[in-house]
Amino acid sequence: MPSPTMKALRKARPDRGAQLESIPVPSIGPNDVLVRVRAASICGTDLHIYEWDAWSQSRLRPPLTFGHEFCGVVEKIGDEVAGFAPGDFVSAEMHVNCGHCLPCRLGEGHVCENVRIIGIDVDGCFAEFVRIPARNVWKIDPSIPVHYAAVMDPLGNAVHTVLAGPVAGRTVAVTGCGPIGLMSIAVARAAGASTVIATEVNAYRRELATKMGADAALDPAAGDVVAQAKDMTGGDGVDVLLEMSGHPEAIHQGLAMLRPGGRASLLGIPRGPVTLNLFDDVIGKGVVVQGIFGRRMFGTWVEMTALLKSGRLNLEPLFHERLPIENFQQAFELLEAGRANKVLLFPNGFVD
Amino acid sequence: MPSPTMKALRKARPDRGAQLESIPVPSIGPNDVLVRVRAASICGTDLHIYEWDAWSQSRLRPPLTFGHEFCGVVEKIGDEVAGFAPGDFVSAEMHVNCGHCLPCRLGEGHVCENVRIIGIDVDGCFAEFVRIPARNVWKIDPSIPVHYAAVMDPLGNAVHTVLAGPVAGRTVAVTGCGPIGLMSIAVARAAGASTVIATEVNAYRRELATKMGADAALDPAAGDVVAQAKDMTGGDGVDVLLEMSGHPEAIHQGLAMLRPGGRASLLGIPRGPVTLNLFDDVIGKGVVVQGIFGRRMFGTWVEMTALLKSGRLNLEPLFHERLPIENFQQAFELLEAGRANKVLLFPNGFVD
Amino acid sequence: MPSPTMKALRKARPDRGAQLESIPVPSIGPNDVLVRVRAASICGTDLHIYEWDAWSQSRLRPPLTFGHEFCGVVEKIGDEVAGFAPGDFVSAEMHVNCGHCLPCRLGEGHVCENVRIIGIDVDGCFAEFVRIPARNVWKIDPSIPVHYAAVMDPLGNAVHTVLAGPVAGRTVAVTGCGPIGLMSIAVARAAGASTVIATEVNAYRRELATKMGADAALDPAAGDVVAQAKDMTGGDGVDVLLEMSGHPEAIHQGLAMLRPGGRASLLGIPRGPVTLNLFDDVIGKGVVVQGIFGRRMFGTWVEMTALLKSGRLNLEPLFHERLPIENFQQAFELLEAGRANKVLLFPNGFVD
Amino acid sequence: MPSPTMKALRKARPDRGAQLESIPVPSIGPNDVLVRVRAASICGTDLHIYEWDAWSQSRLRPPLTFGHEFCGVVEKIGDEVAGFAPGDFVSAEMHVNCGHCLPCRLGEGHVCENVRIIGIDVDGCFAEFVRIPARNVWKIDPSIPVHYAAVMDPLGNAVHTVLAGPVAGRTVAVTGCGPIGLMSIAVARAAGASTVIATEVNAYRRELATKMGADAALDPAAGDVVAQAKDMTGGDGVDVLLEMSGHPEAIHQGLAMLRPGGRASLLGIPRGPVTLNLFDDVIGKGVVVQGIFGRRMFGTWVEMTALLKSGRLNLEPLFHERLPIENFQQAFELLEAGRANKVLLFPNGFVD
Fold it and tell me: Is the peptide bond before A298 cis (omega within 30 degrees of 0)?
């Protein structure tokens, strides 16, 4: 009997682009879950993979089904799996930690020394089906809309960053308004931030920042954002910096607008080394700088689910095109043109 | 030249009641500020003083002007005072800490070993003027409404309790819906609590709890509130308990509805010793129980001001009668009858 | 072929005592490790089981091999086990958490809602061999002596309790000097406590407390230990309480000797409800009370291993008799008579 | 009547060197304390002032009595001062915070926005007498030796840095072994660090590092200290970095040897901007970087006093020459030659 096949968006060769292929549906081991993908969302990383940039070339080993943001329905469970059943609505933590290294043993699996990422190191979710270790599957309340459930991976980055310290009654700067930056604005407001100041060079994204709840969306190209932020905070500077751009200039500005004793949480990934005014901006101000990576397993998922379920997050402004997976080329072109935020792909025929 | 006089509501004698008297306007020292009281609010403690209960008899030394919740306008400042000027709109931290004891030296002045409370140990704010050490005066943004500014003392208790640990994306129980409990509901929601469950025996207060934003207001007399709270949290129990009643039964219920690893913040003052299931409810569940007293100086004030200024707290359901200070008897009777929450007294003629 | 057998100390029937029996060596599953027991240590809980007290009657289902403190050598590993090999020197976390409940998902597996304890709920380590899920096995540096490795379970309780908050440069009270209390004294000193004050009614244990490094070992039967502790701390009270007795009187005294803003970590298990002066001792002092249960998985193990490996803990005064498992009756009698602290049993013939 | 005079070591003119002059004994205000200096210690900053480097030129306004590390005896107190009396043995926090700015209000006076430093902005302790605001004076237990009491300022830097997070049972790297780095080694060991790895290019200081308790003192010029530190920590990297040098190379090495999820506390002051591998060393590893400045007021002083009083810190290897203040030139030359660590000056005639 031939094994059943499925559609999958593949990086087949080490060059630009991707191919929609028919490949066997993944077989699962005793501790795995097979999920039928309902909707998948395209990450900036996926665009890098599509474009085959330097990072992709150094990390990926084609052929590979990529994609790591999604939601779906459990199709089949392995023999040893407890707690899931076919039909469950789920998403998944796509960072698979080893469980053995020191960070894992300390409960810090999000910085596992041997992490493997589904959709980067092994086949991902741009397909009709994806195989996930049961430990990484996350059951979702059916009241959470499909398009929100499809972006829990980046939303988790935002929640991890925002809630890495106190936010209620505090002033917050968000430097960089890509999707995770925009989500952070919504999360910060839901968590009681008194003022949210966004900085972003792209006018379209500044507009979105305002829609997501920012009190101000400042343009670093048009004025002194540090002075503006200080002005908006009575001269003190912001209590919290959420750095979402990875751009050296934004990192400088963010740290400069932080008050003494403030918190800086850095999620944006710089492309190279960054030069800091380490005394003026960190040491002399007694600032705490946190590196943020991934999502806490699974504290972040618990918090995020609770925020979504209670209806405290309005993410609607983030969503744009919804396309059948066959139209993937159109999706990547939209993203390359900077004309879209979250584009959803539907590999199983229905688009909603 | 005779010293100027003012109206003051006094506990003149060690028995029930109070007297409106004419006494000299307080003189101030080099580090003091004289404030013209705009509005004063009556605390449950003031009712105890009015009724001259056991605690009042043991603590107060009449004659005394009582009252410790208020806002007003700076009338005069001492020679050494910097940072304030006549005309400033202010409230004040009425716990005056010594600055010398170990807790004070450790930055925990809210549990100072030598605290003196204005309105209890020295003359308070139920008067046209009140004298406050400059260090304890808190400048208020003029955008904050007078009736909100008058209740920053109890609101600070609520903010201190709610923000003593993480709240965003967490389920919260509030046991006891007096004014501070009700305020805590609003603060917890503003800080991103996903579900707020209130318990309260008084039907009127349960109704207020819902108006303040509670998802459920449960009646312990009518059913098993522990089972109800567990049911509302998927069987796990709540993440956070805010104990606002001081009643042993509510403390039991609150701790029983807390999940393993949860946080219990206790502000309500029990009248006597309390018997706990210390293993089942605290030790075996790995729970953290925090005693909460007063307001952090002045972290709580900073947070509270930011929340108020950004319009994140709707406290309107709390307010009831607004009376000239001459009608104090009516005010205390309303409170004794349980027919009012926050009653405001206006000692300077205008009522708004 | 008959399956191999082994000696095991069994609770064969629901009454007092225990029996040394010959039973099959446990078979292991794909994720298990079989450990040859080198030395096992007797816990107070084991004495309760031996005596068949009310708690034992309610929890245990004989027949059962009991015992949950031990070290040994890996004999065999399951097919899926990575990271261990026969010959490894190991101990184990005997609380097996479910991995699925909310506390487990939040990284707080030590308060798992479905915990099963090896030696209480399933067969334990008073035997030649014990089966342990690989995830719970802990590799030990060969430089750590056998008798120390055998008590990592209770030592982990002590480390969990002491390091649940800052200790360096702080004054510490330890109420109750059973084995875990005594270990806590050594851990607190290793962690930089400036003064360690122990309280204990038993003179022999007070002597041991001094040997373990306590600056004072006070007798609650002989004087006012609260006044003595305050006197030793300049009138302020201690910064940290480590409650190790579970006795209501000791809990009272411990909380009363704690300074405002102090930390109380409760590990001792009271036999029934405990009445507290909740306002005077907790709320009004702004104290934090932590319930402590088990050991953090596996942060506590990491810390404990580092402390042992670096030679910072001298536990010698704790150890007493070392007996072949055949002499178990003598061991339990020694413990019942209060004439021993940690008694080690050797099930595999050699005693050292 | 002429005012009494005293000897004072002055920066009289804006150029290299210093002058011993006779100037009036400072008069004190109502909230000040006049202290007769028993011993003063020379900081690296004092050497910069002596040498009149770029920083000194930008900050100091001669004429000025410099010096900010000392102990002494209370000579006279202002009219409003409580808690001190002539004869008290004291040291002092020389950072005078304003009490009004946001950090001060939040209890973070060590990062006050308007700090004035005694010995830099106003007359300091290289004199027979020094004037200190009462709030900044710190009473010392007479059991603490004079030479230890004289270095509480830098020791406080070390204690602030080491105790800014957990240390017990953790591996610690100290990059840079000047006096504060050396003190940090002693503090880390007293606080239970399992392994302390020091890095330092100067052979004499490496020898001192070992005397202070470092398990290893590595020479960055002689080998790959990152690889060596990883090797000493089983390949994981250290749990805690205490950066004491301010040198970009040491900062790189320190961050590179830190494990994922580790803590980096930076006290050393870089001379200019520093380029970091922000993703590899901070973001991707989920590391927390703390800027450390000054000493917590007065939590650090409480901890430091407790550690000193309990005899847990052996600082003897740090001390070198003890000279009458008249020999100041010899003292600065010793320091310039790198041949001394802490040199003590005695302005009041007796040297011990």
Answer: yes
Q: Which residue of D has its CA nearest to A237?
A: D102
Of the candidates B84, A257, A286, the one whose C-alpha atom is nearest the C-alpha of residue D115 is: A286
Q: Are residues B75 and B174 in the same domain?
A: no
Has residue A309 been placed in a domain?
no
Element holding B108 (H helix, E strand)? none
Going by C-alpha positions, the residue among C81, C8, C20 that lies closest to residue C329 is C20
Task: Assess whether pLDDT exceeds 80 at residue A352.
Answer: no
Q: Are residues A11 and A136 in the same domain?
A: yes
Residue B352's pLDDT is what? 66
The whole-angstrom separation of Cα C163 and Cα C193 is 11
Q: Could A168 and B167 be called an inter-chain contact, meaning their C-beta atoms sit closer than 8 Å?
A: yes
D positions 144-163 inside 8 Å of C (CB): 159, 162-163
Phi, psi of A249 (to 5 degrees): -65, -40
Q: What is the CATH number of the domain that holds D71?
A: 3.90.180.10
Report the chain D residue with the minimal C-alpha distance to residue B109: D107
pTM over 0.95: yes
- Considering its fold, how many domains does chain A have in total? 2
Catalytic residues of C: 45, 48
The Cα diameter of chain B in Å comes to 73
Residue B275: Cβ-neighbour burial (10 angstroms; 0-12, 13-18, 19+) = middle
- Give me the mean pLDDT over the A217-222 stretch: 98
Q: What is the pLDDT of residues A10-31, one digit of tens each?
A: 999 999 999 999 999 999 999 9
Which two tokens mark B83? 């940072």
C-chain CB neighbours of B270 within 8 Å are: 278-279, 283
The radius of gyration of chain B from alpha carbons, rounded to an integer in Å, stands at: 20
Label the pairing between strands A116-117 and C64-65.
Answer: unpaired
CB within 8 Å of chain A, chain D residues 93-122:
101-103, 106, 108, 110-113
A99 vs C301: CB contact, 8 Å cut-off?
Answer: no
- Is A305 one of the catalytic residues? no
Same-domain check for residues C111 and C59:
yes
Q: Are residues A123 and A19 in the same domain?
A: yes
- Provide the shortest C-alpha distance from residue C300 to chain A (in Å): 9
What residues make up the domain containing A287?
A: 158-291
* ipTM for this prediction: 0.97
Residue B305 belongs to a domain: no
Chain B residues inside the 8 Å CB shell of A162: 168
Q: Do C194 and D159 touch (CB under 8 A)?
A: no
Residues B27 and B143 in one domain: yes
CB contact under 8 A, A192 and B191: yes
Query: Chain A interface, mutation test: which of D274, D276, D292, most A Cβ atoms within 10 Å?
Result: D274
